[in-house]
Amino acid sequence: AFLGGLVAFATARYHGDNEKEMIRVAEESISTIKIWAKHSYWNFANKLFLLEAEYWFLNGNEKLARRKFGDSIAAAAKHRFKNEEGLAAQRAAIFHLHYNRKQEASSYLKHAKDCYEQWGATGLVEQIDAAMSEILEGRD
């Protein structure tokens, strides 16, 4: 439900032929994760916050999206989900890039890189390094 929701939100953002279906899938994912979070908050809070951040990002509410990205990062850090903390930071960077806030995006990418390094995901670290180079060079 979690990863499917993230993929659905990302797909819907690009207004494909199946945008309405992707939004439906993403919203169902939020509903499912909300139920799971009631039973195991420590395990699902960060996931719920990230899906909610993506929901508000898709719907153009910058303030709520920004807050939910921060909530997701904080909850993942609190419960020691380094991989999910990195994912939330990486998604927050994409959010900030969308609004052309390159300095904030770079900061979140650095955070994601640090998480992925601690988690041992060298391939993701290399992807983040490449993305950071593009941002610093001024490319989008």
What does this protein structure show overall?
The protein has helices at residues 2-13, 19-39, 41-58, 62-78, 82-98, 102-119, 122-136. The protein has 140 residues and is mostly helical. Helix 4 (62-78) runs antiparallel to helix 5. The longest helix is centred in the first third of the chain and has 21 residues, at 19-39.
Describe the structure using short key phrases.
7 helices; mainly alpha; 140 residues
Number of helices: 7
Molecular shape: globular
Radius of gyration: 15 Å
**Secondary structure category:** mainly alpha
Strand content bin: under 5%
- Helix proportion of residues, in percent? over 70%
> What is the mean predicted local confidence, pLDDT?
94
Q: Which series of helices and strands comes N to C?
A: HHHHHHH
Q: In terms of topology, how is this protein built?
A:
Layout: H1 2-13, H2 19-39, H3 41-58, H4 62-78, H5 82-98, H6 102-119, H7 122-136
Helix pairs in contact: 1-2, 1-3, 2-3, 3-4, 3-5, 4-5, 5-6, 6-7
